[in-house]
Amino acid sequence: MKNLAIVITHPIQYYTPVFKLLYERQKINVMVFYTWGEGGLQKFDPGFGKTITWNLPLLEGYPYEWVKNISADPGSHHSKGIDNPDLISQINNWQPDVIMVYGWFYKSHLKILKYFKGRVPVIFRGDSTLLDDKGGIKSVLRSQFLKRIYRHIDYALYAGSNNKAYFKKCGLKETQLFFAPHTVDNDRFAEDRTNEALTLRKRLGIANDEKLLLFAGKFEHKKDPLALLEAFIDITQPGTHLLFAGNGILETELKNKANRHKNVHFIGFQNQLYMPVVYQACDIFCLPSKGPGETWGLAINEAMACGKAILISNKVGAGTDLVKDYENGLIFNATDGIDLKSKLKTLLLYDKTALFTMGQQSREIIEGWSFVKQVEAIEQLVLSQ
């Protein structure tokens, strides 16, 4: 079998199931090289404002190696945070037939792209988009810079339509691009957690016939939860509630603004095993991001797998592929408070049966975005080399 070396900073709950499935299927051999080092298991997340340890097993069911990281400030928050002098020799010792690298921004990852180009086929995985591109001279210069970067790869696995457009602008040809959908564990999120969801609603004082709007994620400027809160308060729709699940830099401001509104609730950061309950408790999920950098928004996949209606801004990368206006949700123009309020009011005026129907559409759409589809794309590309 062919050997695929996978280079990634640290174990991530969205990617380790892919590695596990690749290993289980035994169509190719895989070895994952974690470049952050063991410190990546418990890392301070500035978005949440706390150290996050996921309560899912991220290192089971596939082979991996830690790579020594000598950075004085290790982490994925800056380019010099990943510095692995032994990485090339460690990979060479494993004798790969193909290399797959997640992200080029880090010192060692870029070095890998440059070293292995022309030696073995290099596959790249990233999810950048052009959604934040404002044009002008800076855009032109960045495009030229990125074209030089992407000359060092042979193929790219694109996550969706916006990501594909980005790769094309960076100079990659159609023959170099392969669709490998951005995915979550659909089965885990679709598992029936109704009783727990009803318990959560009861604890928050939300009646079964009332509608619940959910924001789940980091309370940061990029995701713009303040805009959602302000729109919800202005609408004053009876029988509706808004739940914020998460933490972050905007937490105090959000709670101060919501202080006098009994139908706005906060439950803090919730770990992965409980998140299906949180999604299943709501009727509508909203991701109002204004960017920059909301390249996909995997919370959308999670909410859709739970069968929920979706409201997102046009700066969320997943929207083009996953949200169909008036079928499973609505898309509004980011930073346009009037449009956000209008689209939100439209959904809040739907009865719960109509929202349930939209949620069923979400579930049908997301079934095609699975780990199996992503793994099949990787296997097909590796085996063709």
Structure characteristics:
alpha/beta; 17% strand; globular
Question: What do these coordinates show?
Answer:
The chain is an alpha/beta fold and 385 residues long. The chain is 38% helix and 17% strand. The chain contains 15 helices and 15 strands. The strands form 3 sheets. The protein has a 7-stranded parallel β-sheet, with helices on both faces. It has a 6-stranded parallel β-sheet with strand order 12-11-10-13-14-15, sandwiched between helices. A hairpin with a 4-residue loop joins strand 3 and strand 4. Helix 1 crosses helix 15 and helix 8 packs across helix 13. The longest helix has 15 residues. The N and C termini lie close together (12 Å). The model has no long low-confidence stretch (mean pLDDT 95).
Please give the structural blueprint.
Layout: E1 3-8, H1 16-25, E2 29-34, E3 43-45, E4 50-52, E5 64-66, H2 87-94, E6 98-102, H3 107-116, E7 122-125, H4 136-150, E8 155-158, H5 161-169, E9 177-179, H6 186-190, H7 194-204, E10 211-216, H8 225-235, E11 240-245, H9 251-258, E12 264-266, H10 275-281, E13 284-287, H11 298-305, E14 309-313, H12 319-322, E15 329-332, H13 337-349, H14 352-366, H15 371-383
Parallel strand pairs: 1-2, 1-6, 2-5, 6-7, 7-8, 8-9, 10-11, 10-13, 11-12, 13-14, 14-15
Antiparallel strand pairs: 3-4
Helix pairs in contact: 1-15, 7-10, 8-9, 8-13, 11-14
